[in-house]
Write a structure and sequence with these properties.
By secondary structure, the chain is α+β, with helices and mostly antiparallel strands. The protein has 3 helices and 10 strands, in the order βββββββαβββαα. Helices cover 22% and strands 46% of the residues. It starts with a strand and ends with a helix.
Length: 174
């Protein structure tokens, strides 16, 4: 339905494009949108009651946030491959089992990024391999502590909130 008019900005991870579309009244409108290849986030369950979170410095908000490990898909990459790579890079863990829990639009008002949420279990520890410029360290907490952090608003990263709350509902149903 929407048609790209022109690319306004091209970067390594995303582009900003001017897109045109028509409303039901026949009028044409244009909007700037961010085009992104998609990303993954992973819930690394160290055991049945402990999850590995990360403290991740985010330059865009100039804060260190408590998050689930995550990363951007390479063009054409299977999200499961990205999940395995990002889990190992950011936490050192290798997953024996990886299961897709859901996927969701991260901010569809301006961004086409699709986020794929995985649960990783049967973890084996290993060495991290952070990308240049990343400032990340791990934080293993009990599940109840992670949920307390959500309730206390100590976690305010959207993908992490979605992931923890979605998995908490699944845990409660089991």
């Amino acid at each position: 339905m929407a048609e790209t008019i022109r690319t306004v900005l091209e970067t390594k991870r995303f582009s900003v494009v001017l897109r045109s579309y028509h409303t039901p009244d026949g009028r044409q409108h244009t909007r700037e949108t961010i085009q992104h290849p998609g990303a993954v986030t992973v819930i690394p369950m160290v055991d049945d009651d402990h999850v590995c979170l990360v403290r991740n410095y985010r330059v865009a908000v100039d804060q260190t946030l408590i998050e689930l490990p995550a990363g951007t898909l390479e063009p054409g990459e299977d999200p499961a491959i990205t999940a395995v790579r990002e889990l190992a890079e950011e936490t050192g863990y290798r997953a024996g089992q990886l299961k897709l829990l859901c996927d969701f639009a991260i901010s569809p008002g301006i961004l086409n990024e699709q986020m794929y949420l995985y649960v990783a279990t049967e973890l084996e520890p290993g060495e991290t391999s952070l990308d240049q410029g990343e400032i990340i360290d791990t934080l293993v907490v009990s599940w109840s502590e992670a949920m307390r952090m959500v309730d206390a608003r100590e976690i305010n990263d959207a993908k992490t909130l979605v992931g923890l709350m979605a998995y908490d509902r699944l845990r409660a149903a089991s």
